[in-house]
Amino acid sequence: MDSQFMDLVEIRPFKDTDRNFILNSWLLSCRGSPMFKECPDRIFYPKLTRIVQHLLDTKQVAVLCAKSDIDQITAWICFERIEEPALNTVYFAFTKKPYRELGAQTFLFGQLLGDDPVQYAIPTGLGHKVASALDAIYNPYVLLR
Q1: What are the Cα distances from residue 66, in Å, to 41, 72, 114?
Q2: 134 DSSP 8-state letter
């Protein structure tokens, strides 16, 4: 984790003005995922948009942004903390490409989810890399809750 980078960013709650960026980055990241590869665009975009909008409205979303400009999003995570039994669900997490090797997601996970077990809902190449490092469990069925 790059400590100089972490000194320049802060975690803040989701704002409605973040919605378009988060929706777009979520959809584009998922489009290349093996989970959705065979799904036609006419099905993929409207269906996943509806799911993402619902999650943004009902789950926790945290944004990692520049301290100097809180509208400059570096990374974000959509998640749910479950206290009993302790199991966190990450619905999706995204980091802008220039910040991916600086520990942005590791920082978000550590600050927001602690050491409790994590399950994740949507596999992507980069998401799988982060999930493996955290020993997270792939569980696509949490999207059905």
Answers
A1: 34, 6, 22
A2: T
- Percentages of the chain per state (helix, strand, coil), in multiples of 5: 45, 30, 25
For the chain, which residues make up each domain, given as ranges? Answer: 3-144
Per the CB < 8 A criterion, the answer to whether 101 and 119 are in contact is no
pLDDT at residue 88 greater than cutoff 70: yes
Which residue type does 17 have?
T
Q: What is the Rg, in whole angstroms, of the alpha carbon atoms belonging to the chain?
A: 15
pTM: 0.89
CA distances to 4, 9, 15, 36 from 113, rounded to whole Å, are: 22, 18, 20, 27
The class (CATH top level) of 3-144 is: alpha beta
